[in-house]
Amino acid sequence: MDKLLEKFDGRSREKAYSWIFQFKSYVAYKRCDDVTTTHFFPLCITNIALEWFNFLPDSVTNNIDNIYTAFQDRFFTSPILNYVTVSSLFHTYQQADEPVQEFISKIKSSARKIHIENDIICYAILNGLKAEIRCVVLRNATSINLDSIEHWASLAEVTHVDEDAEMRTKLEDLIQDIEKLKVKMAEGE
User: Fold this and answer.
1) Whole-angstrom Cα distance, residue 19 to residue 155?
2) Per-residue pLDDT reduced to its tens digit, 60-115
3) What is the pTM of this model?
4) 63: which residues sit within 8 A by CB, 6+ positions away?
5) DSSP secondary structure, the chain, as one string
């Protein structure tokens, strides 16, 4: 087997998405026609996946589109898991020390597992961005799409002034001033 394509063993639903994408990319790269791809497919799977394939009817195994559909039905997530994944996307928030690109990649990676529309991905990203970054995106983006969100969010991140750090500095200065006043008052007694 070519090192560009590992065999799929059928044990991980998450790996199914990336593997089928790699398989399709590989056969396109090799310029395989549908017949060749149909014959090549079972050579690229093993264990659980191969057992599953061997029990498919000829009407499925003789057509690559039918194989892809059957593969998706068997190895991609169930509707309940899709619901859980979509729900979790809207409950994923950018952490205080998490860079924008890392957060966006995390959302896109989760979304790719269930093949949801870009609009939903955009809304999930907007929902989870830090409030000050989200405001910059919504104020400046002429359209809400992945490119504009990434652009404006990244720009907001590098130009953002840490207001909390400024506030801490001011509080520390105020505390020092109070301490000095205490000392002066104590000396005046």
Assistant:
1) 34
2) 999 999 999 999 888 887 777 778 778 888 999 999 899 999 999 999 988 877 77
3) 0.53
4) 34, 38
5) --TTSPPB-S--HHHHHHHHHHHHHHHHHTT--HHHHHHHGGGGB-HHHHHHHHTS-HHHHT-HHHHHHHHHHHHSPPHHHHHHHHHHHTT----TT--HHHHHHHHHHHHHTTT--HHHHHHHHHHHS-HHHHHHHHHH-SS-SHHHHHHHHHHHHHH---HHHHHHHHHHHHHHHHHHHHHHHHHH-
Residue 100 corresponds to which tokens in the numbers above? 């924008």
Which residue is it, tokens 């992945």?
146
| Token pair for 42 | 């079972």
